[in-house]
Amino acid sequence: MAPSFPTKPALAGVAALILVTAGVWFPFAAPSQDAGGSFDHDTTGWFRGNTHTHSLWSDGNDFPEMIVGWYRDQGYDFIALSDHNILATTEKWMDVEAIAKRQRAIGRTAMQKYQAQYASKPGWIETRDNGGKTEVRLKRIDEYRPLFEKEGEFLVVQAEEITSSSGEGKPVHINAVNLPGDELIPAVKKEEGLSGEVAMRTIFQRVDAHEKKTGTPILAHLNHPNFQWALTAEEMARVAEGRAFEVYNGHPGVNHLGDATRPGDERIWDIANTIRLAELGYPPLLGVATDDSHTYHGGDVSPGRGWVVVGSEKLTGDALIEAMKAGRFYASTGVYLDRITWDAASRTLTVKIRPDGDATFRTAFIGTRQDYDATQPAGKNGIGEVFAEIEGLTARFTMPADALYLRATITASARHTNPSYPEQKKQAWTQVVVGKE
Q: Do both 236 and 165 map to the same domain?
């Protein structure tokens, strides 16, 4: 179980951090910052949550109430169920036998567990006979939210995985988090013949339009770009509307580490941000970590692998999304941070790491120089150069004068408790900071 957090403190107001890139000024909202662009985040009271989860409403294998209860009981503060091209706002019945088949070789247990969990709540589980088949009704989000939500303690956020396809048949999946009402954001179909890049841009534009129409802040993040090797860093860089992606996704099949010829997700982040900052004048991409969980009865796409920790002033969907859009969060697979500090005057980034038993920690400070050589690996003057690696619970580094950006990856000696790939260690990622010229 994750360490418990103290009561969430009130956070400072929001000021503007101006990013100067290729002669273009971008107002990039960043919290707790002074006029010089500095910030000092005490993260111990921030909210932990997962923005990518699946249930029986699409291709998950458990009931939404069971999934939400698991996240609450594991110490999360919020959870977003993001089923494929559907919202849990209508009436949906499922064949109990079809649910059992989703358990495959691990035992047909979902219905039995569900009945045992809600035996003390008569009438909650609704079944019917439909042509000789027993069906169970899946609860809508408005029905199960009251069972779990408690102001300031736990929140269920509505989301959709907008599951699209490029004209080449490659997956282009984007999560829209904090959707109001019951209106879906339509996906792009293979038959439309769009490239992956244009499909991405189209979906991000649809999310932006939906946000404007509803007046509700919505976070859109691109999911698992290496799944089926669907999208490249260069394509992601060119989509100005895209502002966030999964630097870690807990599904074992998303090629998180890349292969001998293709970059992993973390290097994709550096390549895309280098192009955006140095060549296009776009703001950097934010990096999130998620579960993308589908199986909850011993399967290999299980929960508890990746999450975000968000510096929201309160535990509401709108406040969480505004904080994430402002970059006031970090991504994690098991490392917790107590403080993140950026001193703009000295261009110094400091992270303080929460102890975890006898684990040791190594912080890599990573960025790309203005005169980078794209043909070089991530060494001197390459994209995503490791400027320094520092051991210990406190790591501090001054950004080189010629660097485009700086970020930190913290890796523990301790292994992940539920790994998605062999020898996986617990990690955390800070968001990118960009020095002023």
A: yes
